Amino acid sequence: MKGNGDRGAALVLALMAVFLMAALGACLAILSNTELTIVANYVDATELRYVAEAALEATIAELTAMTDWSEIVAGPATSVLTDGSPGGRRRLSDGSVIDLDDLSNQVIIDNPTFRLFAWAPARRLQAGEDLGVDAYVVVWIGDDPEENPAILAIRADAFGVSGMRRMVAARILRTEAGGVGVISWHELR
Q1: Does position 149 have pLDDT exceeding 80, yes or no?
Q2: Are 188 and 49 in contact (CB under 8 A)?
């Protein structure tokens, strides 16, 4: 009879080991899924930063071609990168909405001279080429916060799905040769 009791105890121990291994496997699956989500968010954030930088580069290229920047800051001049009226709401592919009027009101807190210059889906940045990023870009231009009239301040924001947003800012000046020089360029938090 002693042998039957040992087999029962061995069965209980074997079942406990199976349940322990199953729990450990479930924990590892959850952990790896969390890691994949973290990596995906990091990649999306990096891509959005690059989109914001591309919008800033496109704006600088447009400004290089313009001879008089006074129309840019004070006048109604806008970029070729627009998708309608300079206000209102835009819907992203995930259904989220950005409001250009609200965004502009937030941005002018940092620089009261900022005005909307460019706003469009990111796919319009590179004609004929798929960027592979579902984003919307908005660019504001204003006078230099340090009040140097020869310098322009530019801010570009890229909006992605799930409320992700990346922002970059630059200060530029017109060179004596008629080109554009970048004084500063940095990511905003």
Answers
A1: no
A2: no
